[in-house]
Design a protein that fits this description.
It is globular, with a radius of gyration of 18 Å. The longest helix is centred in the last third of the chain and has 26 residues. The chain is an alpha/beta fold and 248 residues long. Helix 2 crosses helix 3.
């Protein structure tokens, strides 16, 4: 599979069809594979946190989640396929899971939100085998974490979707990977909140023109202003510097 390097992070050149094929192969081979995603925020975190960079670069697949990363790739001379955003992809993904008879465990969000997300998924995909779910507001070390891990081990899902937010979800996965029983582990950010209908998705015209970040910014300015107003320009500046250094 082709890969590109964006500011030290390996990104796979892969689309949704390729991801579906890879997921099916991970299950068929009974592996334990992490399918990570990167947006500008992820690249910025990786540049300042070696542990996070190692997690991404050791993941089985790292797919592009943001238009900003695609633009950064073009600046560096690469072409990435259309981004894959789990908040949209989840419905296509659940359809794929249902058709392939793959079991799923949802972990993350509040107790109410994850329950609502599971109910909405079940309404659309009544034959999908959801083997369990749990909220994400538990202590990530110690007894509470051990209890959640044991719950997942007993459920034995093919697919484990984990939405704690970045980079907490990635660090928890890295620390507990040996104990997690699933063939495919998908970090999910706030996807469960969106699936529950608790957060609104950007209009299609904004999403299709790389402006989804602006919609999200106005939804949560207090939380996201630094990520978008400082992080996005910093990423582009570093991509330009790298392209000049490489003579691209």
């Amino acid at each position: 599979m082709p890969k590109v390097d964006i500011l030290g992070v390996r990104v796979d050149v892969i689309d949704t069809d390729g991801l579906h094929d890879a997921i099916a192969e991970s299950v068929k081979q009974q592996r334990k594979d992490v399918y990570a995603y990167v947006n500008i925020n992820a690249i910025n975190i990786a540049r300042s946190d070696e542990r996070f960079k190692i997690f991404l670069n050791r993941s089985h697949i790292v797919y592009c989640d943001g238009e900003g990363v695609r633009l950064g790739g073009r600046i560096l001379g690469y072409h990435l396929p259309p981004r894959v955003v789990l908040t949209y992809w989840i419905w296509e993904l659940c359809d794929f899971f249902e058709k392939e008879n793959l079991s799923v465990f949802f972990l993350g969000a509040t107790e109410q939100y994850v329950k609502e997300a599971v109910e909405r998924v079940k309404q659309r995909f009544p034959k999908l085998n959801i083997v369990g779910f749990h909220h994400g507001y538990f202590e990530k070390k110690g007894g509470e974490s051990d209890t959640v891990i044991e719950m997942i081990r007993e459920a034995k899902p093919h697919i484990l979707i984990i939405g704690f937010g970045m980079p907490l979800q990635e660090f928890w996965i890295a620390e507990n990977l040996a104990r997690l029983s699933a063939n495919v582990i998908l970090p999910a950010g706030s996807m469960i909140d969106y699936t529950a209908g608790r957060k609104g998705l950007a209009p299609k015209w904004m999403a299709n023109h790389g402006m989804e970040w602006l919609y999200r910014f106005f939804q949560e300015p207090g939380r996201l202003w630094k990520r978008y107003l400082i992080g996005n320009p910093a990423f582009m500046f570093n991509a330009l510097l790298e392209s000049l250094r490489k003579g691209k």
